[in-house]
């Protein structure tokens, strides 16, 4: 019988998840469909009940529901508990459980670039996205993580949770040469503003500089990093790998991520 998957969010029209999952279902000849569903915050509980009644096999959750879905789920995997946010729900035959594949998706995108787990990593930002990545880096065995954030207290709190260290934005600019990997998780760069979360004047050539944003493909941060001869990594990899981990959870099949990164980059280019 055909299986049914979805992504819920508000807004939802620009989501690339239906394109990605439908392409993978086709490629692996899996009899399933994946729909974008517009769900307003006040309708979340009712919509989830409706999807359960109709027997949905799994769904992704995007803004603004990642946290509000948590109390509605019977079971949470460790990744979702640590972040108190869910981006993937799957039905195991008895109940719907929530996991969060965002952080692990980012870590996979780093690992395919042969980043060593002993690398000195500077995580810029301490919001929801940074939280997922910090925990995932820690779970994956990264040993040297430093967190910096505009509001220093939030950097300190997250660093305490994952047993790493925190520094101020100014300190991070002064000590930039020490880091081998920079991970930009703030919302700076999402708008047309040319502002950077930190200055890259002191960055070492060859440093891997990652931004989790993928619209635009090249943020002002990555543009500056490229001018400084750094290796740059945009957010398409994280997006595709978070989807791949969800797909694996639902189907047991590992989808073709390389080709999908290429297709999505072309679509956004
Ligand atoms: P998300 O879930 O996308 O991570 P968030 O939880 O609102 O969103 O976090 C946004 C992150 O971007 C925070 O680290 C925020 O810094 P503060 O904790 O100081 O608010 C950071 N951020 C947003 N605007 C920024 C700016 N103009 N300069 C530097 N950091 C900024």
TrEMBL record:
Q: Does the keyword Oxidoreductase apply?
A: yes
Question: Reaction catalysed by this chain?
Answer: shikimate + NADP(+) = 3-dehydroshikimate + NADPH + H(+)
So which residues are the signal peptide here?
none
Q: What class of enzyme is it?
A: oxidoreductase
Write down the EC number: 1.1.1.25
Q: Where is the Quinate/shikimate 5-dehydrogenase/glutamyl-tRNA reductase domain?
A: 117-187
Q: How does it assemble?
A: Homodimer.
HAMAP family found in the cross-reference section: Shikimate_DH_AroE
Official protein name in the record: Shikimate dehydrogenase (NADP(+))
**Species the sequence originates in:** Planococcus versutus
